[in-house]
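Quick board copy: two proteins, each given as sequence then tokens.
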Amino acid sequence: MADGSVSGADRDESDRRGSSGRGDGGRSGDDRSDSDNGYSDSSDSDNGHDYDDRGYGDGWEELRQQTLRRDNYACTRCGADNQTLQAHHIVPRSAGGPDELENLLTLCRPCHGVIHQHNNAFDDVRDDAPLFPERTAPKPVARLRTPADQCCTRCGAERSDPTELVAWTDVPASDDGRPAPSHVTLCKPCAGLLIKHDPAVEKEALTANHTISVHELTARRTDAPVRPSAFALSQVEIRREPRTLRERVVDDTPLRFLLNHRGVRLALLVAAGYVVLFVVLAL
């Protein structure tokens, strides 16, 4: 990222001023998030904590600046260069992650909150993060804004690859009058099924972190499950017409709850329980 006539030293000093302006003594938000202690910026500052109080040595600030310089003073998840930037440990220090450049990534504070979902120190900014990461985001931070966004709202499948998900942003209100959500995420096969089922869904209402091809989505609709998940929103409760004998006999009937990995495990567990009960009664 070009920085015009601003020198690297000026950028470093500017970043220090921006960090200290948060009231946390210039410390990275990672100091709090890796330990998940939930401290806010102000409480840390008021208590006079510094790097050494949390096990960060004297070289941490220099290492943090090296991380920001390497990442061109931009968030590696969303690309923002106009936010407060922090150094994120890929492997948390609490899990033995080292304070080394290879274990650090630059994140803006909202995106840092996306990675640390359970740290309430980021609750005030987490929703400001973009829904999708940049397509070039490193894998450790390439995730959607919330864990629920990583799952298709029709079939319930979790997708670790953000490029396999599409967000529908023009969701109508449900039939029971409940307000429509701001967006729902769908896997590409289920998104293709939605487009084929409801031609009124416009391409402009579908967003992703890459160019969306309606032809690709509709071509993949046959990969969508025949029936939606039991927890699917009413707006995406769409049934796909079965094409094969298995889909008609199993996937489109209650047998689908039994003839899957979870169903088989449950059946084996029940059978084992009956065997144990029979042995106990026989004794």
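And the next:
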Amino acid sequence: MTVEYYTRAYDAVIQGIRRHTNNYDMKYVGMALGGHNEFDWYRYFLNHSNHAPDIPLDMISYHFYAGANTRTNPKDYEAFFSQLDTFTFEVEQIEEIRKLLSPETRTTIDELGPQFPSVALLNWTTGEGTAKYWTTKLLIETVDIDNDEGVVTQTSDVSGENIFSQAFVGKNGRRWVLIINKRYANVDVFLPGCTGGRMQIVNEASGFGSATEVTLTSSRITLSPYAIAVIHMPSET
């Protein structure tokens, strides 16, 4: 299917719904692309001049699935991170196109994989929260979305091959750092000034429970394989 054909079909569906229901309040999501990096589709579909008059472009959607050589060898999961880095860059390019052509259109990335039982939010036999659930909960409870501001974050892992890190500064001097181990191995991180602060960490040891919390007694932090840690820096004196 070409983008030109799809756009005509999209317009015809909306016109048909309106003709038979007289409902002009319904919202529509277009594209749902599996090949999220098909930039010509975004350029054409988000150009209002390619649509019939009065056709809304309420939302677009696209999908992303990371893959590995096996589902059973945790070492292979390291490949997910480089794929996610590439996808993140592609999202930036898609957003540039959207903001230029149709800034009022919203975006939903409504399929984000892989989709295995092991990456569901809940254990499908016990109902307990998985690492994905507890990581999501940790971030929701940590982030002050109205006040926290990301700042330039530099580590000794300049290329970002082993860890992902992002520091934030909030109200009243609040400072915290998100660190993710991208390797199936222990990784040491040196974070000056963190001694006396708190670390909440989701890893294999935390299992199906909430993030483990410890008080940091050293600036050297050892992250176990694929650990996700939030470091709450001590107050500056």
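Board note added afterward: The first strand starts at residue 29 and ends at 33.
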